[in-house]
Amino acid sequence: MRKLKGFSILMLCLVFVLTACSGKGGNNGTTTPANSTPTNGAAESTPEPVVEEDVPDLDGRVIRIAAWWDQTPAGETQSELNRLEKIAEVEKKYNVKIEFVNIPYDEMVPNFTTSALAGEPFADIIQLEYKLALPLIKQGLILPISEFTDETSNINNGANLVEKYPPIAGDYYSFESPNSLGAGVHYNRNLFKDLGLEDPKEIYARGEWTWDKFLELAKDATRDTNNDGKIDVYGFSGWAPDIFRHFAASNGVKLADEVSLEEGLTSPGSIETGEFLNRLYNIDKVVKIGTGNPMEWDEYNTFKSGDVAMFTTAEWNLRDLSFDFGIVPIPKGPNAVEGITYADYLKNGKFIGKGVKDAKLVYKIYEETLDIPMLEEYSGQEYLESLYGFEDDVDMLRHHISGTGLISVEDGFPDFPAWPFVNDIVVNQISAAAAAETYKAQAESSLKVFDQQ
User: Fold this and answer.
1) In which residue ranges is the amino acid composition biased (Polar residues) (predicted)?
2) Which of 126, 205, 332, 346 is most buried as measured by Cβ atoms within 10 A of its Cβ?
C-alpha cells in the first residue's frame, strides 16, 4: 500500500527530463545538412508526395458544446494549456469558434427538445445522462454514432482520444474521452485501523468479497466505543435508493431493460436485494442515518462525519475529508454476473442531435481538439490521483471497477416505481415480496410509455 506523491510532481520531473533531452531542434541537439549523404551509404529514397488536406472554411461558425458545468479547459495544468492551444489551432484551421456553454441541469433537456423539434438544436454537442437521453433517442432526436463518424475517425481506430460509450436502446449514441471511473464501496482507512478490522482489499483478493462478508464487517464495525449505551460508530452509510441500485446490479438485476422493455424490479433477484437492504437498515441496524430519513439525498454525505466504516458516494464527493479512505468493488450478491459490479445509473456522455448542420464535420473538429500530447500514463490519471491518495485504490478503480457498470436507465421511464419500492422496504418496513406485488403492474406499464407515443 503506497501513498501517491501527486501527479503534478511526476509531470514536473517528466517535463524537465524531456527538456534536457530534446535540444533546440528537437533532434538531440544535432542537425543533418539538407544535402548530406546517409551514413550507411544507401541511396536516398524519393520522398512520398504530400497530399494536402482539403480543409473547409466554415465562415466563422460557432460550434457549441453544452453541459451543466463549464467544460472550458481552465489552463491550470499543462494538459489544459495544450488543449487550449489545440482548440485555437483548430479554430483557425476551420475558421470556426468553439464555445463551451454552461446550461443548468434542469434546463438542458427542455432546451434541447424544443430546439431539436424545431430542426435547430441549440448546441451541436450536448452532455446528457443516459436516463435523460433515452426518451430523446426514442423520439428520434439523437443521432447514432455511425451517422457522424467513419473509418478514419479516432473513435473507430484505437479510440485513445474519444471512445464509444456503452450502447443504449440497441445502438451506440454517446461518446467521451476515455477515463477509469466507477462506483464501489469506499471505506475509512483510519477507522478500520482503529477498530482492528481486516482491510476489504485483502478479503477481495481472496475472492471472498460477498454480501455476507460485507455484512459481517459492517456488524463488527457498528459499536458503542465509549460504553455509554449508544452506538457511536457505524458499519455503513449511503443514500438508500443508490445502495439498492448498486447491490441489485451486483446481484445480476437489471431493473428496466430499454430494449426488451422487461422490468426486473419485481424479479427474484430484486426481491433478494430488497431483503438484504432490510437486514442492513432494520434488522442488523448497521447503517447510520444522518438526516433521519434514509431516502434523503443528503445521506450521500453522512460518511463525512468520520464515524462510518464503509459508504457509497460518487468520486467527486471525496474532496477535503479529514481521514484517509480506500475503495473496493460493490460486494458480490448470490446471483452476481461476471463483469458487473455496480449500477451505472448516472452515466452521462456527449451526444449529437438530429438537425445539427454538418454533424460529421462538427464531430471531426471536436475530435481534433483532443489530439494533444499525452502527458499521463493513462487517460484520467491526473483526476484520479487528485482524489485518491493511495496507489492500490487507483489500481482497484482502473483494473477491477472501471468498465464493470451495468447501464441503468429505469429513471428514463416516467413513473417507474424504484423509489417507492425502496421506501416501502427501508422506511415502511414492508417485506420485499409484498412491495414487489404492490408495484409489479406499475413497473410493467411504465415501460410501455414509448410504445404509446
Assistant:
1) 29-43
2) 126
CA distance 161 to 126: 18
Residue among 331, 353, 352 nearest 341 (CA) = 331
The pLDDT, as a whole number, for residue 50 is 55
Q: Which long-range contacts (CB under 8 A, 24 or more apart) does 390-393 make?
A: 390/1, 390/2, 390/3, 390/4, 390/189, 390/324, 390/326, 391/1, 391/2, 391/3, 391/4, 392/1, 392/2, 392/201, 392/326, 393/325, 393/326, 393/327
Residues in the chain: 453
Distance CA 165, CA 407 (A): 10
Query: Mind listing the domains of the chain with CATH numbers?
Result: 61-178+348-387 (3.40.190.10), 185-346+408-452 (3.40.190.10)
- Helix boundaries (H) for 50-162: 78-94, 105-117, 130-138
> What is the Cα–Cα distance from 432 to 269, expressed in whole angstroms?
11
Alpha helices in 293-417 (DSSP H): 359-369, 381-387, 391-396
First to last CA, the chain: 55
How far is Cα of residue 280 from the mean position of the Cα atoms in its chain?
27
User: With 70 as the cut, is the pLDDT of residue 106 above it?
Assistant: yes
Residue showing cell 460518487: 314
Say what the pTM is: 0.85
Residue 40 to residues 24, 30, 436, Cα–Cα distance (Å): 26, 18, 79
State the residue for C-alpha cell 459490479. Answer: 341
The CA radius of gyration of the chain, in Å to the nearest whole number, is 26
Nearest residue to 394 via CA among 327, 331, 330, 340: 327
H or E element that contains 426: helix 418-426
Partners of 327 in beta bridges: 186
DSSP symbol at 168: B
Does an H or E element contain 438, and which?
A: helix 432-446
- In this predicted model, what pLDDT tens digit does every residue of 327-371 receive, in sequence order? 999 999 999 999 999 999 999 999 999 999 999 999 999 999 999
For the chain, the farthest-separated pair of C-alpha atoms sits apart, in whole angstroms, at 90
